[in-house]
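User: As part of a screening pipeline, I want to sanity-check one entry by hand. Below is the sequence and the SMILES for zinc ion. Please return the complex as structure tokens so I can compare it with the automated output.
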Amino acid sequence: MVTGWESACEVTCVECGIVFSVPVSFVDERQKDGATFFCPNGHKLTYGETELDRLKKDNKELKGKLARYTERLAGKELSIIQLKLSLAATRAWVTRLKGKKKSE
Ligand SMILES: [Zn+2]
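Assistant: Here is the complex for your manual check:
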């Protein structure tokens, strides 16, 4: 039968070193959600990086990659436009040369 008591877990504050007990479920929840809690002396404590933090970091990295690829793609498109213009100029020059040969 559940009596309302559950296993306790000892937590040591990294700031002041005080050891205090909290329910195991409390620790599990804080490890999952990364929410801040406080030691009896009022120091802020958290357990590492949360899922949200990891997703935010991934999102930032992907946005950076996208920006770099977009920039590279824009550079390639510019090169293609320059090559097309160069080709058009060469064709026009060849056409002019052919015209000169015929008139000679
Ligand atoms: Zn503390």
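Points to compare against the pipeline: The chain has two domains: 8-45, 50-104. The chain has a mean pLDDT of 89.
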